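We treat protein structure as text, and this decision shapes the records that our systems exchange. Because each token names a local backbone shape, the row as a whole describes the fold. An entry from our holdings is shown next, in its original layout:
>
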Amino acid sequence: MNIALILSGGVGKRFASDLPKQYNLINGKPVIDYVIEACQNSKLTDKVIVVCDPSCKQFSKYLENDEVETIVNGKERYDSLNNGIEFIKEHYNCKNICILDAAAPLVYPGLLDEYFTKLDEYECAITCRKITGEIGNYHNDIFVRDDYYLMQSPEAFHFELITKHFRPDFYSSELVYQMPKETTRYLNFNFNHHIKITYDTDLICAEALINYFSNK
């Protein structure tokens, strides 16, 4: 079974709104609904689960109408992820899991299909982005940017791998760092228009991109 787990417990401390950023609107639709629809339309996704604050379910038609399964979020991102993993372990026979961010509305069904397919060959699939600027640091050390890349959601794993190695108290927010170094990784550098809503102006950028791709 392939499960898409959407993390939607964040409050968006840097976002200029009392409403969590994933429930703000783009073209009249909550940000999270774009993510849910991408998961629902994925051919290889068998189940969609959302980890969220129950008091926010009213802001999404899919959550409010129980069209997807929901579980209660934790205090921090890793706590919410732990809640999701434990719930899946208890209730489902999961082979692969794809973890998505509710505030990243440009994900699309084919991306999930690609990641679940790649898990037949690799143990995990990670969304990556090349670094185009120079890397600064507070110690004035010199870094070669080609040795580094950015990692983003979504990310997919063999569920057995993540249940074996995941710790909610790990120091880094990047999940793949918890896996053994020899874990085989598919690095996807082709999702160049990926954007996560962090600031209120990101809604404008995301809307422009969504409209652009909708018209192509």
